[in-house]
Amino acid sequence: MIDTTTFEEHRRMLFGIAYRMLGSVADAEDVVQDAWLRCSQVSTPVRDPAGYLVRTVTNLALNRLTSAAATRESYVGPWLPEPLVTRPDIGEEVELAESVSLAMLVVLESLSPLERAVFVLKEVFGFSFREIAGMLDRGEAAVRQVGSRARAHVQARKPRYDAPAEVRRQVTEEFLAACLGGDLNRMMELLAPDVTAWSDGGGKVKAALRPQRGADKVARFLAAVIAQPVDDPQAHAVDVNGRPGLLFTVAGRPDAVVCAEVEDGRITEIRIIRNPEKLRHLPPP
């Protein structure tokens, strides 16, 4: 059996695995809770509690990914992960998030469920192919092949941004000031010529159904969004999956989470999450 103390010792790791596989805070928390319910009912001794817990969480997450495939295919507009939002000064939570940017989660979303599981367990959490094979009830050679394929896929699409956090935060804040001030010229200066903006409303709130590409198009799109009349709009500096970002509230309620990628002092990518279901886990700032 696995006691509560042992489970709590591994909760952060279990959540990290589930979140990276599912791209959803709520689903990851549900999977971790389901794993605890299952493991707490085991009456026989467990020789490797950590391995048993990881195996349980991984397989529960795989089941969810498989059942969610149809939902993702019919999703209205661009799909973005559910953001993990923290205050910039919360070290422990940032540590959990710093290897799982929104850009990386989007790349992981393009993997098959099995590839995603193997990649997360091997490349992020350092389990061996032999251990992963045991968790997934598959041959080691087959798992090694899946892992190699997944790693090559991710490396070919992996975002390569090395701007320090303080630079990303400064550029993000300057861009916000330009947006709020209606300074279209300054917005254009801070956007890379080939910038792309994705907005995820899930068909529930207003959002662009296709990515916006190019500095002029992105700047005008964002200027139009900000110009919409709303009740008591506020912008709050936060960390979004370990990177500087913004939380916008309307009448005290979360309305949008924004995260930008910065390269050479300019914004190259912007992700805007407005789907209310993906923001419901956020407490009022």
What is the helical fraction, as a range of percent?
40-55%
First CA to last CA: what distance?
40 Å
Q: Strand arrangement, largest sheet?
A: 1-4-5-6-7-2-3
Question: What does the largest sheet look like?
Answer: 7 strands, mixed
Write a compact overview of the structure shown.
The protein has 285 residues and is of the alpha+beta class. The chain has helices spanning 4-22, 25-40, 49-73, 91-97, 102-109, 113-124, 129-136, 140-157, 165-180, 184-190, 215-226, 276-279; strands spanning 85-86, 191-200, 212-213, 233-240, 243-250, 253-263, 266-273. The longest helix has 25 residues, at 49-73.
Any key phrases for this structure?
single chain; alpha+beta; seven-stranded mixed β-sheet; 12 helices; 7 strands
Task: Summarize the SSE layout with pairings.
Blueprint: H1 4-22, H2 25-40, H3 49-73, E1 85-86, H4 91-97, H5 102-109, H6 113-124, H7 129-136, H8 140-157, H9 165-180, H10 184-190, E2 191-200, E3 212-213, H11 215-226, E4 233-240, E5 243-250, E6 253-263, E7 266-273, H12 276-279
Parallel strand pairs: 2-7
Antiparallel strand pairs: 1-4, 2-3, 4-5, 5-6, 6-7
Helix pairs in contact: 1-2, 1-3, 2-3, 3-7, 6-8, 7-8, 9-10
Domain RNA polymerase sigma-70 region: 7-69
Domain SnoaL-like: 173-269
Family: Belongs to the sigma-70 factor family. ECF subfamily.
